[in-house]
Amino acid sequence: MYDLMLSPHARGTAVEQLYRLVEAVGLVTTVQTSIGVGDTAGVIVEAAPRLAEDHDVLSSGLIMSRVGMYRIAWGVVSHPGGSLAVLAPLPGHEGQQSSDWIRHYMREVLDPVMALSGRGHRTGGGGNGTVTEEEFARAFREAYV
User: pTM above the 0.85 mark?
Assistant: First the structure.
């Protein structure tokens, strides 16, 4: 596991919001692409179309998608070689057990997004301030909006 580091120039931006998401949540999915932010978001939604069904773009720059019994907080930012995305599953409501929705999340979001690795994108995981991919951690230090 590799520590995610926030560069000083990213403070107060959507990059910091993604950093805080990885720091606060025990499970995240990461995607690293060589394409732009809009195209990366499109590839993710194409793989997991339920992300687009009911969602809000928050003032922080994150997207909150409501998918059945759970929510996904996610966002995409730029880095010099393309884009970086972080997706984090969250319960649909306070006090909800993850066992109520985890299988749906795996089938509807996790597995399809991880399959993007077969299309030339790098995918990984993480949580609690770390990520599984060293290259993602390195690129994140140079991320910008």
Answer: yes
